[in-house]
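@here heads up, posting the sequence + SMILES for the zinc ion run so it's all in one place. Ping me if the SMILES looks off, I pulled it from an old spreadsheet.
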Amino acid sequence: MADENNQPTKKCPSCQKDIPAGAKKCPYCQSDLRTWFRRHPILTVLGGLVIFFVVVSIGGSSKEGEQEAATPKTETETPKAQETPTEVNLREFLNEFDNNQLAAEEKWSGKLIEFTGTVSNISGSSSSPYVSFESESDEFLGASVTCRTLKDTSQAVSLENRQRVTVSGVVKGQSLGTVVINDCVFK
Ligand SMILES: [Zn+2]
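bot reply: prediction finished. Complex structure tokens:
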């Protein structure tokens, strides 16, 4: 005969009697000894799924927020170079330098301009040609303009003195009566 006292026992939380440890139901008071989750498996699974989707959606939305916050940064990281030149009247432009060189340099240095002028001198070398323009300043021996660097040096070969050309370039500043323009492109 099996001795029931050798089996592991526990106390029923409802009636405090000793019952088999693995019992799912108290044999004395019939109270259900399983946990709430074991008694409600469908609710447990549904609850788990709800928690799972809530966590996933919070994680997903926070990632989207990070991406949205990162996008404007990359847009502002690339400052746009001035692409459209400011058209200037060469005579008015040179008068500004003759009237006040400091003010004119403050206004124009680093600016991309486009002007039309008459070529007065082509010098330098084929690898680094200079192209100077006739002064159109109102002053006698007023300021003139020189293209000190050309974007495409081969353009200098096709120019002639007295030729009227439109040119764009970046203003460097005035030196010895000449307003230096760099990165010149002849049209
Ligand atoms: Zn009981």
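MO: Residues 41-77 form the longest helix (37 residues).
MO: One more: DSSP finds four helices and eight strands in the chain.
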